[in-house]
Design brief:
Structural class: alpha+beta
Strand order of the largest sheet: 1-2
Shape: globular
Distance between the termini: 18 Å
Strand content: 15-25%
Number of helices: 3
Radius of gyration: 14 Å
Order of helices and strands: HHEEH
């Protein structure tokens, strides 16, 4: 989602949830999918892809992506949210 704010960052910025301390991106992703989409995400990892990054937002990918573990019934919901099953 280069050059776009992630849905969890927008949700957090809107003040729809508060944490005692600044959450990690993984904690935020887990909270977002749990509260907004009722999806239990059990593990989130940021994976460095090794791709080169440039400032042409519509052309260049980011240098990382996230992987997440969910239960089988939630896989369809996650693919609707533009996640890819691997």
């Amino acid at each position: 989602m280069q050059c776009e704010e992630t849905p969890w960052a927008i949700w957090y910025a809107e003040g729809n949830i508060q944490f005692f301390k600044e959450p990690t991106e993984s904690e935020l992703i887990i909270a977002y999918y749990s509260n907004v989409h009722k999806i239990e995400v059990t593990e989130v990892k940021r994976v460095e892809s090794g791709n080169a990054v440039c400032e042409a937002c519509s052309v260049c990918p980011t240098s990382y992506y996230f992987s997440a573990k969910v239960k089988n019934p939630d896989v369809f919901k996650m693919t609707k949210e533009k996640w890819v099953k691997v």
